[in-house]
Specification:
CATH architecture of the largest domain: Up-down Bundle
Structural class: mainly alpha
Distance between the termini: 38 Å
CATH class of the largest domain: Mainly Alpha
Strand order of the largest sheet: 1-2
Number of strands: 2
Length: 448
């Protein structure tokens, strides 16, 4: 059997270590993000955590993703994918352990920064690792890896508080280091094999199917669910390969609209992971035991979205309807939290607000299909993600400052609601079936 000119073989055949390495790494990417905020109140019993500190912790993921999105390609060129994967997962392991033994707010922030430095590097490495070891099964492996990421997003909030109440918050935070540490082992074994000249756990050097797959995706024909998920997860690399193309992006309205979509998606996600449990406890009257599962419910919405949204966008061009559903669902959820703050119906508002989870896979697949050339897609990805993560980095701190200034959570929630409303025009713009190259040519009257 062939795929894009490649001879395919079973996923595990001859590359078990690569499967394990990628799955364990993917699990560690999101569990590190989602495991802290549910136990913030319990940590606060041992040492004070101001809203500014919690906001700073919530800002760490997008800041590290933007920074290490630029640095990781440089590390990879010097050290290779597998070595950088070991470094990234080791940083996550050490950071998670350090977070569990933190003695004050400063050490907690430093440990969290170390965790997300590793996550930021690993986030960049996943697509090229999949491409290297699973060129014949890219769509399938991307589906596996994104599903694992979605699972590891909603699992930690579900168990964080029960484990913290049983074994302490330090155990609840540091236990996730086991998965990151386990994730280093397959890559270390593969590096040792390479050093001693043992057979490599990889695919044969066959022609790269990516260009053909990209062409099918951009033309909207012969696209499977696997291909669509691969498109949605592929443009993670932030560093642009062509400075001239990257310099054109600020002059293209479509690029700005995509950046607004990505910024809205990222802001809703990281603001929620930083503050949603606290809002539910302090403003909605939910118990700490229930706040964690409700954050898990919010994250769970992203699991089916990551599988279905790319296919709906690529095959059925449902971009604008999906964006409006995500934005308006999030808006209704935010308004419900503001105006009808009763603990017995908090699950309804969280579920509706969780529809913003549609926007992340939507933004990623649009980065791929709104560019004609792969080099343009890389530059577009760099522009969109750099701006998006910069905006997302501001909001967790901003919401904490607003909470301190107003003494409540109404104003921070209104800010999120207003952002969703303001983003709708950008969602309409990105729904138009054109590329950034065509946008440039139409505005400037010359070929790309």
């Amino acid at each position: 059997m062939t795929a894009g000119g490649l001879q395919t073989r079973p996923l595990w055949q001859g590359r078990t270590l690569a499967v394990l390495g990628i799955v364990l790494c993917a699990f560690s990417l999101r569990s590190a993000v989602a495991s802290l905020s549910p136990v913030v109140d319990l940590i606060g019993r041992d040492f004070p955590l101001s809203p500014a500190i919690i906001g700073l912790i919530g800002t760490a993921p997008p800041v590290c993703f933007a920074l290490f999105g630029l640095l990781t390609p440089l590390f990879e060129r010097r050290l290779g994918l597998e070595r950088v994967a070991v470094i990234a997962l080791s940083a996550v392991t050490l950071g998670l352990i350090a977070r569990g033994v933190a003695v004050n707010a400063v050490t907690l922030v430093i440990a969290t920064a170390l965790v997300f430095a590793g996550v930021g590097m690993a986030n960049i490495l996943m697509p090229p690792l999949v491409k290297k070891y699973f060129a014949d099964r890219m769509g399938l492996m991307m589906t596996v890896y994104t599903t694992v990421m979605a699972f590891s997003t909603f699992l930690p909030p579900l168990v964080a508080v029960p484990i913290a109440e049983t074994a302490g918050w330090r155990t609840s935070l540091s236990m996730w280091a086991v998965f990151a540490l386990a994730g280093t082992i397959p890559w270390i074994v593969m590096l040792v094999r390479e050093r001693i000249g043992a057979p490599q756990d990889t695919t044969a050097a066959d022609p790269d199917p990516a260009p053909e797959q990209e062409e099918r995706i951009r033309e909207g024909r012969d696209v499977s669910l696997e291909d669509a998920v691969a498109a949605a997860t592929g443009p993670i690399v932030v560093a642009p390969s062509n400075g001239r193309i990257f310099a054109r992006m600020p002059r293209i309205p479509l690029a700005w609209a995509l950046a607004a979509v990505f910024a809205t998606s990222s802001t809703m996600a990281y603001a929620s992971f930083a503050w949603l449990p606290t809002i539910l406890v302090q403003y909605e009257g939910v118990s700490a035991q229930a706040a964690g599962p409700l954050l898990s419910l919010f994250a769970f919405i992203g699991l089916p979205a990551s599988l279905v949204v790319p296919l709906l966008v690529v095959r059925f061009r449902a971009t604008t309807p999906l964006y409006i559903i995500g934005a308006l669902g999030g808006l209704v959820g935010a308004l419900g939290l503001i105006l009808w703050n009763r603990p017995e119906i908090a699950w309804l508002w969280v579920s509706l607000f969780g529809l913003v989870g549609l926007l992340f896979p939507l933004a990623l697949v649009l980065i791929s299909i709104r560019a004609r050339e792969s080099e343009t897609a890389v530059a577009l990805s760099g522009f969109v993600q750099s701006l998006g993560y910069t905006v997302a980095a501001v909001f967790p701190v901003l919401l904490g400052v607003l909470h301190t200034a107003t003494g409540g959570w109404q104003v921070p929630l209104w800010v999120l609601a207003i952002m969703l409303v303001l983003s709708i025009p950008a969602g309409v713009i990105v729904g138009r079936p054109r590329t950034v190259e065509a946008d440039w040519e139409r505005r400037h009257g010359r070929r790309w």
